[in-house]
Amino acid sequence: MSERQRPYVPAKTLDTDYPLIDSDPHFKRVVRYARRSDYVAGAISTAAGPALMLVWERIAPSMVGKGGFAPIMRLTTGISAFAGFLMLYERSILRFYGFTENKREVEMDMREMVDKVKRNEPLYGKSSLTPHMQGVASRNSRYSGVFLHVLPWFNFVNHEQHGVETTKYYQQAERELAAEQAERGLAAEQVESS
């Protein structure tokens, strides 16, 4: 009995002001591409919760008694730390989608992928999942960063369904390898002539 071929569902391409880098970037990649401004925004968001609690306690004391305020502050700090991380993550992932300015990330993406092509590695990593399960994972987390403030959902699966044409990476790698070979040829000629 043969297994029935399941249809491939391509990623929808949205009309954005900036180029799409990846419609379903891996969690580690989003964090790695985060800018310093993302970390600052996350830190400010993290600090805002406990700071507001301290201000409110000064303005209108809760009168919870000794030891009552510390657990509230710990909870507020934990929730604020998670909110700060979500702020960092969302600012970074929106650049992958092309919703905000992403020139730096486009250059980083091209460099990373071309280097992988040169090393003959899979562009988006290796996966132990079947192609069908990779597709399921992709469809479940594609553009999930848009709704991150309601339902934090991250992509932890390596797969090949990212909504971008990957030939640009291979073409750039070919151009760079040809330039490197030409450079080596010139260097060899110069050594022989001297």
Structure commentary:
The structure is a single chain. This protein has six helices and no strands. The protein has 194 residues and is an all-alpha fold. Helix 2 (36-59) runs antiparallel to helix 3. The chain is elongated, with a radius of gyration of 24 Å. 20% of the residues are buried.
Give the helices and strands, then pairings:
Layout: H1 27-32, H2 36-59, H3 69-97, H4 103-118, H5 131-141, H6 167-193
Helix pairs in contact: 2-3, 4-6
Describe the structure in brief:
By secondary structure, this protein is an all-alpha fold.
List keywords for this structure.
194 residues; mainly alpha; 6 helices; elongated
Give the uncertain stretches in residue-range form: none
Supply Rg: 24 Å
Distance between the termini: 70 Å
Strand percent estimate: under 5%
Mean pLDDT over all positions: 89
What oligomerization state is this entry in? single chain
